[in-house]
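Worked example 2:
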Amino acid sequence: MASDELAYLRLMKLIRAFEGWVDRLFVEARIHGTTHLCTGQEAVPVGACAAIKSTDLASGSHRGHGLALAKGLSAGRLMAELLGRRDGYCQGKGGTQHVASLAHGFLGTNGITGGGIPIATGAALAAKLRRTGQVVLSFFGDGATNQGTFHESLNMAAIWRLPVVYVCENNLYAMSTPIREAAAVERLAVRAAAYGMPGETIDGNDVLEVREAVARAAERARSGGGPTLLECTTYRHHGHSKSDLREYRTREEEECWLALDPILRSERRLMGAGELTPEALEGLNAEVDAEIDAAVAFAEASPPLDQSLAAEGVYSD
């Protein structure tokens, strides 16, 4: 298990380094539009994707770079997509909020709050009807649990016993609205009872706990037991987006959560088990930095999207 966690640690570091570059490129106006960083939440996608098969599917939210990398997308092509380059997974058309790769079973990020939930539910229905044996992971934030799409999708999935695991990344805030002011229940996982499915709240900053919980839920789904709602408690280190100054959060609260950083937690556990030395950690950091630097170089060397191809792959007008 320790060796597995070392691989998870590397991937979490890769995601964080990727997001660091996204932050920098956005400030330099080399990434346009907006961007939503998942820094601090890396253990959720890494642990969840470690628990499923490569042939399984996943849909994400607007904060989905980490999920894309955890699902196997390359950092270079993902960065090219964010920069609007032709070598991106969607030829630069999707950008940060609408990038997908069906070859990796990644059904995409989504700029609409809760927009990916019905997509995942539909994919689970297709998997059941086709008898593919696939499981679908649906990632969304706490704010999405108050959307109609959340309730409609969970109700349908429960009725039809669809092979889907709903993964709520509860980072305590829907933009600037605290979840305590938007939901009367203390734990969002209890909402699962209304649909007759299991619900569980787990520590979303512990990659091993996430992996084990998703593995149980995925096995239940794959064996015909139906859906599960998992609430993963976590915390984003940055604001909702680049324009968010986080004035609704106290610095004391942020310091408390920074102490629970998922990367630091895995580092401490691995060092305590004798599976990681300071020298090996330094080498791992250098390796990750080199990979991300190469990814950025690849993306910047990629040509911009040819305007003549703008309508290619568009299925409606």
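The mean pLDDT is 94. DSSP finds ten helices and seven strands in the chain.
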